[in-house]
Write a structure and sequence with these properties.
Strand 3, helix 2 and strand 4 form a beta-alpha-beta unit. This protein starts with 12 loop residues before the first strand and ends in a 13-residue tail after the last helix. It is an alpha/beta fold. It is 28% helix and 20% strand. The chain has a 7-stranded mixed sheet. The longest helix is centred in the N-terminal third of the chain and has 13 residues.
Length: 172
């Protein structure tokens, strides 16, 4: 995806479902690496996509990434689904609502016709990835802590049965 072909995140009004405060997309994600999942309450694939995002958000490698959802069809329906059990569902994701008029504008600008639809932003607010799940590289998100060589060696040592530090087995 080239910068010339990538649209900017449209600045559209949102309602934060956690505190009922009004905000806008650029304000909500300003200065943060973010993964935004556009979804609807009638989508059969959306709950499992949100389950996966919530799991990613609990992984320490993603501590520099904000995970958010934007429900685009029913504010009350979204609240009902999110708050269904005693504990809020998808508790590591910040949830927003966008009305249908602005959903249509987002669809037109971002070019999506199906949900779930993801938009990945870097901390400058630039869209760096967008599309369906198959279009997003979740192992390479802005703000994600990448394993270092030291981490790989430490894992090898931890997995070694006899406790000895081995990188290579040399059989002559």
């Amino acid at each position: 995806m080239t910068a010339a072909s990538t649209p900017n995140l449209p600045d559209l009004p949102l309602t934060n479902l956690g505190n009922a405060e009004f905000t806008a997309t650029r304000e909500a994600f300003s200065g943060q690496n973010a993964v935004i999942d556009f979804w609807t309450t009638r989508c059969t694939n959306c709950p499992s996509a949100l389950d996966e995002l919530n799991d990613l958000a609990s992984d320490e490698r993603y501590e520099g990434v904000k995970f958010a959802s934007i429900c685009c069809d029913s504010c009350d329906g979204a609240r009902e689904i999110i708050e269904k059990d005693d504990a809020p569902r998808w508790d590591r994701i910040t949830h927003f609502f966008m009305d249908s008029e602005h959903k249509e504008e987002a669809k037109r600008i971002l070019g999506f016709g199906r949900v779930p639809f993801y938009v990945v932003l870097n901390e400058d607010g630039d869209i760096v990835q967008m599309g369906s799940k198959k279009n997003i590289d979740f192992d390479n998100l802005p703000g994600m802590v990448q394993p270092t060589m030291g981490d790989d060696i430490a894992e090898e040592k931890k997995d070694d049965d006899d406790g000895a530090f081995k990188i290579f087995d040399l059989d002559f």
